[in-house]
Amino acid sequence: MNNAEIAEVFSQIATLLEIKGENPFRVRSYRRASETIANLTEDLSAIRERGELRGIPGIGAAIAGKIEELLDTGKCAQHQELLREIPETVFEMLEVQGVGPKTVKLLWEKLGIATVESLEEAARGGLLRDLPGLGEKTEQEILRGIQRLREYGERTNLGAAWVLARGIMDHLRECAPVERMEPAGSLRRMKETIGDIDILVTSQRPEEVMECFVKMDCVAQVLAHGPTKSSVLTTEGVQADLRVVAPESWGAALQYFTGSKQHNVHLRDLAVRAGFKLNEYGVFRVKGKREERVGGEREEEMYQALGLEWMPPELREDTGEIEAAREGRLPRLVELSDIKGDLQMHSEWSDGHNTLIEMARAAKALGYRYIAVTDHSVSEVQANGMSVERLRARAAEIEKARKAVPGIAILNAAEVDIKGDGSLDYPDEVLAELDFVLASVHSGFKATRDAMTRRIVKALENPHVDALAHPTGRLIGRREPYEVDMEAVLEAAARLGVAVEINAHPDRLDLKDVHARRAKELGVKILINTDAHSADQLSLMHFGVATARRGWLEAADILNTLPLARFKRSLRRARPGRKRRRRG
Ligand code: DGT
Ligand code: CA
Ligand code: CA
Ligand code: ZN
Tell me, what CATH number does 215's domain have? Predict the structure, then answer.
């Protein structure tokens, strides 16, 4: 068993114990072990061989014993026993928004419901409304959640698809005679969810490439196996298409299969009117019945033939990019290498997995000049939020980390909850002690649109707030964004000089692309942050950069592309209006 599989077993144990109503501390220890294991960079089997399983922080003797059991037998007796009591199908039920372990416990004990299908039937039949703590409203919510799950079920988060595609491409490069290779489709456009993975290659021996592709370990089912095109369904339920194209058509195929469909339709329209023909083999000048090929080996040629500049895949959604290319006003999109700091991350002081020093070292290794460590505030009990005392104790540790890791500025910061009434989770005088304050909503997601908008705007009006984090609270595919008037929030941010975050975590990615574009129009300063809960998650930054690019943003639109001094001067706290007039 690999680390991910073992982590999954512990996560299931935690959930099953929770459904049984076991001691929360016990539940938490399994949950924590699962997260720790998922974040390890080394294989558990290797750690075990060195006899160091018990040395992993957060792994006690009992859990270490279970890891050994899993490594030896592929099973864990306690897990199996729990699954005899509670059917495994409850995990599907937990994917329905609004259904947590407590609800599952109730449904299972009172009505014997253990599958999404029987849950749907019971909700439709009005059987849920009489259960303690549920009601007609919850019943409707569960039905909507089931519908959403089914719709989303067809698509995969960008993050997961990206890892999968990288794995496939690394494998092909190793086992097959591939020359050029690129992902195409929505993955190359870095859309937030992916329907299927499209990969293009050139090769002198296409059959061998196809052979290697359909025989990968991650293949659950071969959907098509041809000489130049194959499709497989992976064990994770994601479809992947592989095409081998002729080298002289590489650019044409890449352009065609990158899409989007709307972008291609618009482009082809333009081509026809200009006397050209575009397809996946090339671009052709049409003269009566004759066609003369004018390009197709390079992607640029497809655009140049029509008098257009090449444009980055992230823009290709037919939302004005073709017009902009025609008029020579395409944006110079921000790049990962422009990013100089990361302003949301969590350490062991709240729910992160690494120390302050480890986070700082990892950020420095990425070439960053500054970071903000934004551990959670006091109300975030389940995320080990910091009391004022602990926040102050941490300040002293940050001071030590600054000495231990020179060459990178560590801002003493916090991710502070916006409470239900729009007030912040620390008093103003405590906020004033911080170098950087990130505010965010973590509770009360069911508030009305008006209430949520007022709540957030009120929080932004607090002069200590520098930035708003993950502004819609969504978890892609799992939790809908809360209802909020984004236009009003962005207007307030622009007026008050508060920055708004693009959260780079692929589960979040909000501000999303279209909101980021609107934010720029309104003059809002943007931050791109990873929200890393471990040092390796700092590398998720590129997903946030891609989202910014999909929102047409340039380096100048993003605060954390600035060198430290200018970054600090651009924060809300540096605005003249904010400083308390100390000397009259
Ligand atoms: P997805 O997979 O749903 O996330 O989205 P895409 O964009 O990857 O779509 P997919 O996989 O169906 O096709 C890949 C690209 O191939 C698509 O972006 C554009 C191109 N394409 C596919 N079908 C058509 C079509 O009927 N017309 C045109 N113009 N292009 C197409
Ligand atoms: Ca696709
Ligand atoms: Ca496809
Ligand atoms: Zn957060």
Answer: 3.30.460.10
